[in-house]
Records
---
Amino acid sequence: MLRTIVIYGLIAGFVVGVPMSVMTLSMSGQTMMHYGMLIGYLTMLIGLSAVFLAIKRRRDVDLGGVIGFWQALGLGLGISFVAGVIYVVCWEASCAIAHVDFAGSYARAMVAQQEAKGVSGAALAQFKTEMEQFKVQYANPFYRWPMTFAEIFPVGVIVSLVSAALLRNRRFMPAR
């Protein structure tokens, strides 16, 4: 099972990480803010479909058509974990190569958004202070890595739960 987790986790991680790296390296900061989240989460769903495929393969090929919910969930979470680690590595590498100041771009975009809403005075000053604190925190890799991992892993948990719930039923997409 560990071999399956590693293989499918690497596949999922690279399916998610490579397009994200390409976007990071090719898009300007503002364009990335507008489309990056949508494209990113769609890519995560596509990449994490490896969870479903791995559970189905394990059920049909290795276990004779039957898999329990907890075993399927464990397999899915393992794959999601490996994919999350690859995602973090790809993000760090692409930001280092492109010299992207994500925290600075994000903070500027959030401040501009608050100003567009009409926030001013002490409330805006407080928000700017919070954004400056965020930039300092984000510079620390022990803060940044878990934040980046937390972008993809919850999606993996949902995909794992749905896949395990569906595939525990031997009549759902049976082997031919």
Note: The helical segments are 2-26, 29-47, 49-62, 69-98, 102-116, 121-138, 141-167.
---
Amino acid sequence: MQERPSTTEYPAYFQDYMKLVPEGNIVALFKEQERQTSNLLQGLTDEQARFAYDTEKWTIKEVIGHLTDTERIMSYRLLTIARGDVTPLPGFHEDSYVLQAKFTEMTVASLLAQYKAVRASTIALLESLHDQDWVRQGMANGHVTSVRSLAYIMLGHERHHHNILHDRYFASATYPLNRM
């Protein structure tokens, strides 16, 4: 599946994520992004991963957990729609998920292990899809959404958080620099 989704296949509020996804084979993009995310985060100490660039902002650990939870949810949506299930799928409140999960109590290694497991599962799901599955549409969070748009949303969402990690966390004057 190489064709990008049209703007009628996803809610307008995902347009910024869509713009962040480069051209290329979607599965290859998922694999490359997993490598980039792992490289970006695997050497963090617990002190660094507990860092938040401002009050009321997530810690890096919470960002990792949020990426994983969001991919779990988006992958479930993708699976449901790809299989032709027309059940309207609910939205989710990301802040509630992060608060409930207590990601700050987990190690960076365990958070990354979960991330990698979820990403491997997403890639396996994408590799199993047939051409007609990619263009199927369903309802998620009250909006028409296609299978291919969900794949692009996942990639764009993670790239969005890479940018935030670089620009607001790692570039902060108060970020603990004792990287391993």
Note: The beta strands are 137-140, 143-146.
